[in-house]
Each structure stands twice: as structure tokens, then as C-alpha cells.
Inverse folding.
């Protein structure tokens, strides 16, 4: 458990995303109106930077590149999306957003052991 | 040679010839491999070779930028097999619904210039092809390395003559060849039909088409099919056609005919990005509206004032498609109601 301050809640406008770096870990904060999410800043499909390709509307984060999308409340995958979004636990205290950062969350595009089944994850 | 594909949903095996890409071999045999552009730019057809010898045709393909070649990652549309191969695909293999694409020969005829950098041409096929409105073919010409995708402008079943449209890209190889070098009626290789951004009247939907430049090609087929099926008797339609200036717009006569046949239910708006629209209607084609601004912005503001229940088609340069998708989603559109083709 390592709760770290990411930003003030007011720094990320409603229905938008903003990238921060906390102790060298890049984090994308998503404000979907009903709440916030902290996620790795790349799309789990083809590594596009979600800072540019992500759109937030109606509690859904969509990547404009190939329309992968996730419900931000339930994290349910939408449409033809094939990989879940990874998220950091967050707390929202006194207008500040904190995330439980215990190392960087990544998607296994090229981990060393992907000769097994990681390529599919 | 045999290709075995391992996917999340299981394993499949198909034959692959010496002179075809792994992607095309699978698609023509009904194996629903993932792809979008079929021409090396998008990266969707990435796979990992687990065993076997391969030959990568276009090593600098932009779609390969994020691949790890040392781990055996390839673009299936740019890779041929040199032995039996086992490849992994990081996706489900959904069931194929469309007709299987096939390789044919074609002859390019009747090139007509429409504007300074746009031409319409016919492709006469060695065997008839059935395709859906909105689909494309990949053409390979001798002397131009690699294939180029072009969307059909016409729509017909069992068709031997495809009508295609090309907007010349400065310094582009195929464009230079077609506009400047081509002599007589050259034979080319054709693979298709491909593409999922298709129109089917039976889906019973209102439609909107948003095209940037040559993205109009597939939209013409969609409107052609819709008019043939009298779709606009009971459904609303809209076309937003983005060009730089009025002098860059084309197909205006054809578009006027579609509007005239639409029972008042088809709206065609030409969006001018680099000049102000002098009048609300086109002076020579008063059934067509004019607007100033980038096509994605013009479409978004007009669509906000309309019925939300609409299936939207988007085609054009990748940046134009991305900004259009962004404004559609921000405007409340559902992803299942967006179909797109990125031209590059
Ligand atoms: C689905 C789809 C539909 C399209 N529909 C149309 C259309 O209807 N009208 C239109 O004008 N354009 C269309 N395009 C764009 C078209 O395919 C060409 O990219 C464009 O005409 C420019 O071609 P060029 O040869 O002039 O330019 P170039 O820059 O020479 O080449 C452009 C494309 O050709 C391919 N390519 C280039 N070099 C190689 C190589 N060495 N090996 C293999 N491949 C190579 C790549 O896909 C590259 O993006 C479409 C593209 C896609 C993906
Ligand atoms: S990269 Fe995000 S959907 Fe494909
Ligand atoms: S389908 Fe092969 S790179 Fe787009």
C-alpha cells in the first residue's frame, strides 16, 4: 500500500483525461462525471496514447483508434473490446486524488515470458 | 504450405500459396483474421510467428512500428510463408459473415479527371464480384511495390466493372503511376471485396455519411444502394462531404440526383475547410447545401440538432476519421452506431 497524491480533482475537467507522472510512473486520470479513474496511459489494444486517443462520454472511455471502450463505473468492456482496462485504486480526499501505486501497471505486449499465454492477455 | 493460427478462441489451419500474404490466404478461405487496411498501415493484422519461415514484403510498413520483430511479430498483410507456419493472433476469431474475398485480375480503363487531383476510373474484372456498399479492393500494379486499397463508388451484385476514385497524394507512387505514367489499359492484380463499414438496407436505420476528400468513394456506393432500395422513403439520410474549396468538390450531379430521389429525406452538405461558403446552397446545384468549416465539426453541429438514432459511416484520412469519431462519441453516439474506414 502506497497512497500517493496524483493531482487536485479540479485539474481534470469533467469528461476528459489528463496525464500525470508520480515517482516516474505515468498515470492517466479520467474524470467521467460520476467519479474518477486512474489507469495506465496507453490503450491495451495497440498501445496508442489514450491522452490523445481517449474520449470520455456517458461514463464510457472510448479509444478513437479502433473503438475499444470500457464503462468507467463497472469497468465492463463494451462492443468488440477484448482486454480489460487495468486501474489503480484511488481515493478522493479533500479535493485531492490519491492512488495506490505499487509499481507501474503495464499490459503484456512484450513481457519476457509471453511464449506462454501472456500474448493473449 | 499450411498456416496454423492460434487464437484465444482456438486453433485453425488453412493453405497458403507462395505469392500471397498470410492475411489474404486466410481471408479468401473464410478464416476471419483481424485486419482493417489490408495494406500495411494500421497494424491490426499483427501476429506472432511461433514456428516456420516467413518473408516480410514491406519491412518499413508504418503498421509495424510497434511490433517486436525479434519476438517474431509480423503484419500478416505484409508477410508470406516460406514453409508451414504456426502464428498467434491476439484476438478472438469472430465468425466471418461477409462473402469471401478472392484474387482476380483487372484492367484499368476510362480514367476521367474530376478535379486537379482527383480521378475516377473503371476496373474490369476477370470474374464478377459481389460486394456490399462501402467495401474496398486492394490493387497491385506491376512497377508499384505493394497493394493500394480503393473503395468502390458503384454498387451492384455480380459485377464485372468496379468504379473507383483516387485522390492523388503528393509524391504517392500509385497516384503518380495512374496520373502520369500509365499507358493503354494496364492489367493489375485485385483482391477483395474487403471491409466491414457496409450498408445493408435491411438493418432499417437512418444513416449519416461523413467523408473527407476521397472518403466520398464508399459513401457514393452507400447512397447508390440506398436510393436503389428506396431506403429514403422511410429513413432519414445525411451526407457531409469535406473538401478544401468548392473547386475541389465533385460528383455534384450524381449527389443532386440522389437528393432528388430521396422524397426530401436526404440532406447533402459540402463542408469547405479552406474557404467561406459564399451561399447557403450551391449556385449550380441548388439541392446541395454548403457550409464552412472542417467536416467533422460541421457534421457534429448539424447532427446534434437531429434525431440521435442514426448509423454513421466515416471515411477519409486517418486524422479526419479520428476527429470525427471523437466528436460523434462526445456528442453521445454509441460505438455500435459508428462504422469507419481510415484511408492510410
Ligand atoms: C480501406 C482503405 C480504403 C481506401 N480507399 C481509397 C479510395 O477510395 N480513394 C483513394 O484515393 N484512396 C483510398 N485509400 C488510400 C489508398 O489506398 C492509398 O493509400 C492512396 O491512394 C495513396 O497511394 P500512393 O501510392 O499514391 O501513395 P504512397 O505513399 O506511395 O503509398 C500509400 C500506401 O501504399 C502502401 N504502400 C506504400 N509502399 C508500399 C510498399 N513498398 N509495400 C507495400 N505497400 C506499400 C501503403 O498502404 C501506403 O500507406 C484507401 C485506403 C484504405 C486503407
Ligand atoms: S489502439 Fe485503442 S482501440 Fe486500438
Ligand atoms: S491490416 Fe495489415 S497493417 Fe492494416
Amino acid at each position: 500500500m502506497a497512497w500517493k497524491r496524483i493531482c487536485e480533482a479540479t485539474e481534470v475537467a469533467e469528461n476528459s483525461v489528463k496525464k500525470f507522472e508520480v515517482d516516474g510512473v505515468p498515470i492517466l486520470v479520467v474524470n467521467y462525471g460520476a467519479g474518477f479513474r486512474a489507469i495506465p496511459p496507453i490503450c491495451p489494444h495497440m498501445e496508442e496514447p489514450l491522452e490523445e486517443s481517449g474520449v470520455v462520454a456517458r461514463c464510457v472511455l472510448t479509444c478513437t483508434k479502433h473503438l475499444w471502450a470500457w464503462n468507467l463505473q463497472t469497468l465492463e468492456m463494451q462492443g468488440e473490446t477484448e482486454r480489460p482496462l487495468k486501474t489503480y485504486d484511488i481515493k478522493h480526499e479533500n479535493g485531492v486524488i490519491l492512488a495506490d501505486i505499487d509499481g507501474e501497471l503495464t499490459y503484456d505486449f512484450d513481457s519476457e515470458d509471453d511464449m506462454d499465454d501472456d500474448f493473449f492477455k | 504450405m499450411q498456416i496454423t493460427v492460434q487464437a484465444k478462441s482456438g486453433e485453425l489451419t488453412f493453405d497458403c500459396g507462395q505469392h500471397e500474404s498470410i492475411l489474404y490466404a486466410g481471408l479468401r478461405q473464410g478464416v476471419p483474421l483481424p485486419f482493417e487496411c489490408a495494406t500495411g498501415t494500421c497494424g491490426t493484422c499483427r501476429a506472432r510467428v511461433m514456428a516456420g519461415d516467413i518473408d516480410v514484403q514491406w519491412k518499413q510498413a508504418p503498421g509495424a512500428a510497434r511490433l517486436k520483430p525479434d519476438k517474431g511479430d509480423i503484419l500478416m498483410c505484409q508477410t508470406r510463408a516460406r514453409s508451414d507456419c504456426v502464428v498467434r493472433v491476439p484476438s478472438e476469431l469472430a465468425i466471418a459473415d461477409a462473402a469471401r474475398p478472392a484474387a482476380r485480375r483487372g484492367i484499368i480503363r476510362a480514367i476521367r479527371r474530376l478535379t486537379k487531383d482527383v480521378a475516377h476510373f473503371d476496373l474490369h474484372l476477370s470474374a464478377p464480384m459481389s460486394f456490399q456498399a462501402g467495401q474496398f479492393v486492394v490493387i497491385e500494379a506491376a512497377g508499384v511495390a505493394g497493394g493500394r486499397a480503393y473503395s468502390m463508388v458503384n454498387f451492384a451484385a455480380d459485377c464485372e466493372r468496379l468504379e473507383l476514385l483516387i485522390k492523388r497524394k503528393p509524391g504517392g507512387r500509385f497516384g503518380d503511376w495512374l496520373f502520369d505514367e500509365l499507358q493503354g489499359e494496364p492489367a493489375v492484380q485485385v483482391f477483395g471485396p474487403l471491409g466491414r463499414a457496409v450498408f445493408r438496407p435491411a438493418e432499417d436505420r437512418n444513416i449519416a455519411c461523413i467523408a473527407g476528400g476521397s472518403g466520398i468513394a464508399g459513401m457514393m456506393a452507400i447512397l447508390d444502394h440506398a436510393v436503389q432500395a428506396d431506403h429514403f422513403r422511410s429513413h432519414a439520410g445525411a451526407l457531409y462531404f469535406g473538401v478544401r474549396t468548392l473547386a475541389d468538390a465533385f460528383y455534384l450531379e450524381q449527389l443532386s440526383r440522389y437528393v432528388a430521389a430521396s422524397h426530401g429525406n436526404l440532406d447533402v452538405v459540402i463542408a469547405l475547410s479552406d474557404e467561406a461558403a459564399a451561399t447557403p446552397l450551391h449556385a449550380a446545384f441548388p439541392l446541395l447545401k454548403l457550409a464552412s468549416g472542417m467536416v467533422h465539426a460541421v457534421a457534429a453541429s448539424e447532427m446534434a440538432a437531429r434525431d440521435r438514432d442514426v448509423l454513421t459511416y466515416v471515411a477519409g484520412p486517418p486524422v479526419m476519421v479520428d476527429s470525427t469519431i471523437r466528436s460523434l462519441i462526445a456528442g453521445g453516439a454509441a460505438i455500435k452506431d459508428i462504422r469507419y474506414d481510415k484511408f492510410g
User: Anything to note?
Assistant: Residues B 35-38, 40-45, 63, 75, 77 surround FE2/S2 (inorganic) cluster (ligand 3) (CB under 6 Å). The domain at 201-340 of chain B is CATH 3.40.50.80 (Rossmann fold). The longest strand of chain B covers residues 102-115. Chain B touches chain A at residues 8, 36, 43-44, 46, 48, 66, 68, 71, 88, 90-92, 94, 322, 325-326, 329-332, 335-336, 338 (CB under 8 Å).
